[in-house]
Design goal:
The protein has 291 residues and is α+β, with helices and mostly antiparallel strands. The protein is 25% helix and 30% strand. The protein has two domains: 74 residues, no CATH class; 199 residues, Phosphoenolpyruvate Carboxykinase, domain 3, CATH 3.90.228. The longest helix has 17 residues. The chain is globular.
């Protein structure tokens, strides 16, 4: 494993090894294996280690004896990363994203794909990238505001897929390698977007249902708000960050007001390319909305 700080996706973070990490002195909230406060987060993963994040820029961790270095890296790049972003006041979602280039001469539209594990969001994002879209993020999407408009901020994280997804998409064995032991997944080598942020124009909420073909609908704003809130990474730790939680609720309102929100219910069994084609056809039909 590389030194954790060498390829960390969030700039300005110092990561160090500690001999001992004590519980937070006055945690504002806590749960099974974690504690949080306005500027602190402590997370314990039995068999892997204990991790402490502070002020959005400092991380200390203590590895358990015999811990798998790849699992240490995974936690630093997932739970700890989410906490650091929250400490910086950057809302982040369990989602993938890409830029759809649907109309010639247009710079493209940012699309964020939400959904429960297995809904197909990573598969859709990767398939879209293979078809000419600009890949932005996989599984973890921060949203920042530029001049009041929500934008996707790409993070250079590894892209994880299932072996059957790689097979369906015709990905060469040389372009993937084993992910952490026990996950049964692979990491994919994929070209990632450069620096900067990309306007968020559409949110797709992927679900699995008893349908024969993908069904598209637009939920009411209140329902869209609830669905989006439910996809915020590590929402529970915000119980110890009341000011950040209040800011996020306002940000969610702005996102719902400015971004197309579409629910996509897909059949239980559908090929990735079929889902992607249905999504592309739907986007192409939004001619009156500049897609």
């Amino acid at each position: 494993m590389k030194e954790p700080g060498k390829d960390y996706p969030l700039p300005g973070v110092e990561i160090s090894v500690a001999d001992h990490l004590a519980p937070l002195v006055t945690p504002a909230a806590g749960g099974d294996g974690w504690e949080s406060g306005p500027n602190e987060f402590l997370f314990n993963a039995p068999g892997t280690g204990t991790f402490y994040a502070r002020d959005g820029k400092s991380v200390l961790y203590r590895a358990d004896s015999g811990a798998d270095p790849e699992w240490i890296r995974l936690i630093l790049h997932s739970q700890v990363l989410a906490a650091l972003l929250h400490q910086r006041g950057i809302i982040n979602f369990h989602a993938g994203s890409f830029v759809h280039h649907g109309r010639r001469g247009h710079s493209g539209h940012g699309v964020m794909a939400l959904g429960a594990t297995g809904a197909g969001k990573s598969s859709l994002v990767i398939a879209s990238a293979q078809s000419g879209a600009t890949f932005l993020t996989d599984d973890f999407t921060p949203v920042v505001f530029r001049d009041g408009y929500p934008c996707i901020w790409p993070l250079r994280r590894k892209v994880k897929i299932r072996p059957d997804t790689a097979f369906q998409l015709g990905i060469a064995p040389g372009d993937i390698h084993d992910a952490e032991a026990g996950t049964g997944k692979k990491y994919l080598n994929i070209e990632q977007a450069g620096e900067g942020s990309y306007p968020l124009d559409m949110i797709l909420r992927l679900e699995v249902g008893e349908v024969d073909a993908p069904v598209f609908s637009e939920p009411a704003p209140s329902e869209a708000f609830a669905l989006l809130r439910g996809e915020i990474c590590s929402w529970e730790i915000l119980a110890g960050m009341p000011d950040t939680e209040a800011d996020y609720l306002q940000q969610l309102v702005k996102i719902i007001e400015r971004v197309h929100f579409v629910r996509v219910v897909r059949p239980t069994t559908i090929r990735i390319t079929e889902l992607q084609e249905a999504v592309l056809k739907f986007l192409a039909g939004l001619t009156g909305q500049d897609f």
